[in-house]
Amino acid sequence: MSRSRSALVLLAAVAAVGCSDTDDAKLSPFPIWGQRLGMPLDSLEQFFIRQDNMPWGGCDASGRGFKRCWRGLSFVGDLEAVADSQGRVVRIRVDVTDATGGDLMFDNDLSAMERRWFKVKGMRVDNGGVSDANPVGTVTFSTARGRWTVAVTFDGHRCYGAPRACPVRVELTDHRAGVEQVP
Q: Quick one: which of 66, 92, 60, 87 has its CA closest to 169?
């Protein structure tokens, strides 16, 4: 293959990747602790086992082929993951219940994750009316057509030992999966 043809093939490959649609991706562009929606549920469990040597606290069938698993997160609160019938994670929900410093550590982690989310091509943000003056409501990050979302919910309480509002829930969702019907 000639150099010009090789360069053309490489340029086409780069253009295809650069123009790829995040809504059609197999994995969410919004990671949480490096984990993404679309990954196998077993892989998510293994990640958390490596973190603190704890498996799921329990799992149940949620209907329509969904499987819901949950566990505590010693540093922040509770985690719930929902997988579809193929075992792909389609929702991750973190409920922040620690108000003795874990909330502040999680908020610091979340700030770092949000910096990555802002770099997602075509990403949209709806601040839901949340501001420093009104720290109540839900901020939603989403891909261009809304398949992948992250909803960060605030109830107005301040992070432990800090002047800023802390989230009470972070929920990542694959809206193509129909997971909205799973409580």
A: 92
